[in-house]
Amino acid sequence: MIPSLPRPLWLRTATAVYLIAFLAFLFLPLIVVAVFAFNDAPYPAPPWHGFTLDWFLGNAALGRIGLFADRELLGSIGTSCIVAACVTVLSALVGTTNAFLIERGRFPGKQALSIMMLAPLVIPGVILGISILAFASRIAEFADDAFGLELDFLRPGLPLVVLGQFSYIATIATLTISARLRRFDRTLEEAALNLGATRPAVLRTILLPYLRPALLGSAAISFLMSFADFNTTLMLVGADTPLTVMMYGRMREGATPVLNAVSLFLMIASAILALTLLRRRAAPRANPAP
Amino acid sequence: MLKAASDSRWHGRLALGLLLAPALLWLGALIVLPHVDLAVLSFRERVGPREYVASLAQYRTFFAEPLYWHVFVRTAVMSVIATFLTLLLALPIAWIIAKLARGRAGSLLFIVCLIPFWVSETVRTLGWMILLRESGVLPALLVKLGITAVPVELLYRDATILVGLVYTSLLFMVVPLVSSLESLDNSLIEAAYDLGAGGFSILRSIVIPHAAPGITAGCIVVFMLTLGNYLTPTLLGGKNSQWFTEQIYTQFITRFNWEQGAAFGFLLLALSTALVILGLRLSGQRFGDVMSRT
Asked: Which residue of B has its CA nearest to A99?
């Protein structure tokens, strides 16, 4: 019931109980991950053995490999960052051209094309992964048979991981950027053209600054989604494993709290990213696009 | 003048071509062609080294081998249950955010609900594993409270998989629900109340019909994501998970039987597409409208 109507006591109590239970459900998994990063025991499990920073700072000499000494884990964070950076740049570029194409272009089949652009979101990630894997191998084999070319980048590995993630993250970038372009006041552009500005100048001085918030927002989302992607990556991964796949492998074996340490690290990083993004969105009036 | 006009038309064409190229390259090379290739792959059979014939053998195997289609049906049913549970759990919180919380409290609560989903699914699943495994937090708590004598294994059960799936899906249900409930005019509810309607009939004849687009959007997205999930079922369900994406992985990566894997992939895609279309039909909505809500 809404606040303007009388609500019986039992309903208000039930609402409060539900809300508390819901928030507990939401945050309990994250809290235990964070807490057990500091437990002085070889496994992330109760009971509590006391506080330690071993799982961050430990090294082979201490008998415990902490996050900052775990080369494998640090390497996989690096791999994830490289992949995410490539996916972010690609998605921002293609997302921008797509936004102009959909919002400004006039050509037959535009409706069909814009619906096609949504398709990657409704295809399960695993299937995106295997279809790209199979197609890339076919091209690689064809090149090998026909021209004797060794196209290594079409074999499972980071280039394919980037393409696999980009295949659906591009849709999200397109949606974000075209949503902002749609609200653009075209008289600004016409005024600039009337005053003698060239098209490239209009793009550089008016359109791109206007799109900046959407570009930054979609870049942040792309980076995060790429970093967190598991399904598509798992199918395309080669020798270099990104963080999610590495964590998955270790979780199956039963890992030390170093995984909690890296998770806490991820939580803090994404919280910072989320807060900056929300703050930007909360104050769009304070600094309007120039 | 004429020359200038044709010049600008030519420029327009050039610009259109330049804008079309990335889109066509992306959709053609990464979506359309790979799926055509996957279809071709699924309709052939290996008869010798590098020798293939067109056949339906892969699909025949799927129906002939009970394990395969059992897992398929199980995945579908579990996904439907998970979607329904997610809706049930998300509706009250969406109502609180959209209607009950006043002023900033509502948007603050909304942000709080979104926070866990900024962290990757791997981290959240790690949390559930620490909570639920035999040596984990909840079994220890149950022993301490005297409910069980020894720690019980809470992982590797169907219920656990459902908890994990509902947890991962919540965000995708809460967001469309909140946006569709926010647009519901409070005076409609007040009018119904003044005319003597009870809570349940208000819910049934005013709230649900109004929120139907949001409910459909949320259900479609949650169902799709659940069906295609790999991480949560395999980690929380272990060997008992029997999730269909796991079968695809086994065929493709472990056994290197790409033809079989491709057929499985297509069956999963067909199921997910069929349910999306069914959902849209039942609620009379268009694909584009639904996607723009999420």
From this structure: B19
